[in-house]
Amino acid sequence: MNHAPKQTITLIGLGALGKVIVFKANSRNLSIQAIVRHHTKMNCEYLLNDTDGVSHKLNVACNDFEMLSQSDLILLTVKAFSIIEILEQFDKILPCDVPIILINNGMGIKEQIEARLPHRKHQFYQVITTMAAYTDSLGTHFVSKGMSYYGKIFTSSIQSKSCMSFTELNKKERRHTENEALTMFESLFLENGEISLIHRVHEISYYQLEKLYINALINPLTVKYQCLNGGLLDHINELNLLIDEILLFHSALHSSNAISQNLSRDELYFKLMDVIQKTQYNQSSMLQDFLASRRLEIEEISGYILKKSALMCLDLPATQLLYEEVKKRILREPIKH
Ligand SMILES: NC(=O)C1=CN([C@@H]2O[C@H](COP(=O)(O)OP(=O)(O)OC[C@H]3O[C@@H](n4cnc5c(N)ncnc54)[C@H](OP(=O)(O)O)[C@@H]3O)[C@@H](O)[C@H]2O)C=CC1
Ligand SMILES: CC(C)(CO)C(=O)C(=O)O
């Protein structure tokens, strides 16, 4: 008989995706808590409208830092610009030998982990997902289950001796293996107990780049034209210029061996048109953030491409102009929170 204690998950960031993950964990009877910004909160109640239209009232325990230090799996569902600050804030209490799984759009996190959290490199996994959810005054709406891919961020990293957490200092033995934690994570994406909506991949960076390109082509343009994703079909000439620059960028990455796969114009064009068509009635996440006066992931999307391009001596004038137009709009309507 197996007397091992139940595995536990700590999720940091109870926004739209975080609420969906908690819902999934609850319906699979997994033990999950959330860390939210206000650390005095002991639980959070919210309404989740599932993809089938059924509403569920949920209540999740929050901010148990002892549980955080002993969790078998850490999930971060925060915006890209919040990730490093949160990891640094909890560095002393995060366990050193469990997977830390990041679910976000945008890029640049790998470089920041390398610089600021090198002792944790062995722990990081990245999820790239087409799952969709948003929150409004009626609750959180789980719009689409999509498909997710995940993989190690640093493929050849081993545990660093300098990672000494609260758990290690108390010489508490970890009760579950990394594989068990990942199996638990994957079970969150099982449909009817059998069809998996997540796949583990060897090279997650290619999936990250593909999603980055889709986000860079759709999100800032929807802010510029204040339109739904489908409205971008009225700006096809501008989209074509941006696609050409993205291909130039990808080709430079490929030539410098930063990425092994190449990307053809047809591939990128059809992928983009497919996403625009499937999400034609959606507001992009960047437009939603803009309309709610929240900080945008513009630096982690277009800004990332422009910074990397500059390092490779590439000029991307249409991408640069779009980036500046979005930044100007933010200045006109500043972020409130
Ligand atoms: N929603 C979607 O459909 C999809 C989202 N993504 C990506 O996933 C990531 C998360 O997205 P989403 O869930 O929509 O984002 P949200 O903005 O809805 O959620 C982020 C949450 O993180 C919280 N947070 C920020 N800083 C802290 C902190 N220091 N401590 C605790 N909590 C904190 C925020 O709290 P507060 O509100 O107080 O700031 C908010 O609740 C983003 O990168 C997004 O681009 C990817 C695919 C689909
Ligand atoms: C795919 C897309 C563009 C869908 O809206 C998205 O990921 C986003 O809005 O951030």
UniProtKB/TrEMBL annotation:
<dbReference type="Pfam" id="PF02558">
    <property type="entry name" value="ApbA"/>
</dbReference>
<dbReference type="InterPro" id="IPR050838">
    <property type="entry name" value="Ketopantoate_reductase"/>
</dbReference>
<keyword id="KW-0566">Pantothenate biosynthesis</keyword>
<dbReference type="InterPro" id="IPR013752">
    <property type="entry name" value="KPA_reductase"/>
</dbReference>
<dbReference type="InterPro" id="IPR036291">
    <property type="entry name" value="NAD(P)-bd_dom_sf"/>
</dbReference>
<dbReference type="InterPro" id="IPR008927">
    <property type="entry name" value="6-PGluconate_DH-like_C_sf"/>
</dbReference>
<comment type="pathway">
    <text>Cofactor biosynthesis; (R)-pantothenate biosynthesis; (R)-pantoate from 3-methyl-2-oxobutanoate: step 2/2.</text>
</comment>
<keyword id="KW-0560">Oxidoreductase</keyword>
<comment type="similarity">
    <text>Belongs to the ketopantoate reductase family.</text>
</comment>
<feature type="domain" description="Ketopantoate reductase C-terminal">
    <location>
        <begin position="204"/>
        <end position="328"/>
    </location>
</feature>
<protein>
    <recommendedName>
        <fullName>2-dehydropantoate 2-reductase</fullName>
        <ecNumber>1.1.1.169</ecNumber>
    </recommendedName>
</protein>
<keyword id="KW-0521">NADP</keyword>
<dbReference type="Pfam" id="PF08546">
    <property type="entry name" value="ApbA_C"/>
</dbReference>
<dbReference type="InterPro" id="IPR013328">
    <property type="entry name" value="6PGD_dom2"/>
</dbReference>
<dbReference type="InterPro" id="IPR013332">
    <property type="entry name" value="KPR_N"/>
</dbReference>
<feature type="domain" description="Ketopantoate reductase N-terminal">
    <location>
        <begin position="9"/>
        <end position="139"/>
    </location>
</feature>
